[in-house]
């Protein structure tokens, strides 16, 4: 009887086993899970190790292992591991003596991409200080906000940031903030030059006792959200998070022999955590760029034998828009790590520039759940597998776009989204996958916590992002909740509409959003578009495109022509001001168009009035 039961049970699960084994991605799933398991064991060891072993200690081990290996290439200059180590020693000693910094202090860095960024941060880490990475593009109110919310008492800025500092200097003085400039001299009272003190300091190693009380849960960094929907928030990044982010390169297949190209800003998690600390974990060479340049990108890669590149937002599209050349596949790049590339651009990129493994990510600086596409599948951010879900419990739940809140059942619990259905991604907050929150902003921290999700009393992190898991268990990013609007009772995903618009020959870029209309519920679709050089807006062709590929409720009724878009430091299009300005031709000075019966026509004040008077039905 027992034998027959075993045979029947075996036959019952045989289809499941065969389906798993025959899955074309089974081998890649196993490889990923093996790497993840090894990294999980490493992290567990780091948590127990005393004294604490940080990413800085990992760098110091590399200095001992290969002191003369090039660590940084920058604008024609090269710096070895030992040279960067010694320079960071000088910075640490100067700050210890001159600025009186000590373990536990927080220092704001107001610097652009430059080698001094790297060794200044390392110098702070050697003293046990946390660094707040300020966006060097912010000014005035935003600068003061970002600085104050991290609790820093010291700010170190690049020489070219002097004018920006002068704007807020009276307030900084009132708050007793010490302001230092990485220059030889400064004629502004209240701003002290630091370069001479660094130059005169000793480059001898510092005692690890200076950071003896730092643990894996201590603050390492403060990295700011992009602020597309308001003032930036300071995400507190612990040393544990630094390690976790550095492992992304491991999972992506980066080895100690690779050369990494960083052209993203170091004040952001992509450039600093995934890029710089990931390179330190691997012990590799970094080619650092002051800023992204599509025209210089591939020449830089060839010159330095780059094998791994980073991308974010629209950078791949910028590369695909460059004039074609015969030697486009003449390079050694084999891996690209990043997020935010559209499927059509992904395909074009591979056709033009060769067989490069695209490791598309989904993650947030402050979040406790992330994905990585470790397969060759185009257009996805990851894949569901047992180990990942076990280590980082998550689910997709139904979300009401209009009310901007999860849908709950009669018991007050959230409803899980079905397979193939878009849902709000939430990650369970556990000891292994914590959510630390935002510095100096308990209200925003609490807004990200979601309670009573699947069981009464449970606690999840609300990513604010809509994702979808398809029948093959691939994870697809759909949209950000704030970038999704509801019109005619339907949800409109702005990224989907933007993808359709950029297929129009005359349109180079599209920024889609929803605007309020007097007397109507929800928000109607509008798009700010940039026209290709030498072209004019083709209303008829655009009309044909949107009516062919989009349902009526998703078609942008208004088009705004812009010569350029306001972007964040990570190439995200800003929308808040566009939403507020709406489509009134009396106040919007850019050319405006309205979707009529057969084409897009110029939006006149007469049409605007008729819309508000409801003479024109929308």
UniProtKB/TrEMBL annotation:
Q: Which GO terms describe its biological process?
A: lipid transport
Cleaved signal peptide residues: none
| Membrane topology qualifier | Multi-pass membrane protein
A GO CC annotation given for this chain = plasma membrane
The EC number(s) this enzyme carries? 6.2.1.3
Task: Spell out the Gene3D superfamilies in the cross-references.
Answer: 3.30.300.30, N-terminal domain of ligase-like (3.40.50.12780)
Q: Which terms does the record give in the GO molecular function aspect? A: long-chain fatty acid-CoA ligase activity; nucleotide binding
Describe the location of the AMP-dependent synthetase/ligase domain by residue ranges: 61-373
Give the reactions, separated by semicolons, that this protein catalyses: tetracosanoate + ATP + CoA = tetracosanoyl-CoA + AMP + diphosphate; a long-chain fatty acid + ATP + CoA = a long-chain fatty acyl-CoA + AMP + diphosphate; a very long-chain fatty acid + ATP + CoA = a very long-chain fatty acyl-CoA + AMP + diphosphate
CDD domains registered for this protein in UniProt: hsFATP2a_ACSVL_like
Superkingdom of source? Eukaryota
Name the UniProt key words of this record, in alphabetical order: Cell membrane, Fatty acid metabolism, Ligase, Lipid metabolism, Lipid transport, Membrane, Nucleotide-binding, Transmembrane, Transmembrane helix, Transport
User: Where is it chiefly localized?
Assistant: membrane
Q: Where in the cell is it found?
A: Cell membrane
Q: Which residues form the AMP-binding enzyme C-terminal domain?
A: 496-572
EC class of this enzyme? ligase
Q: Which family does it belong to?
A: Belongs to the ATP-dependent AMP-binding enzyme family.
Q: What is this protein called?
A: long-chain-fatty-acid--CoA ligase
**Source organism:** Umbra pygmaea (Eastern mudminnow)
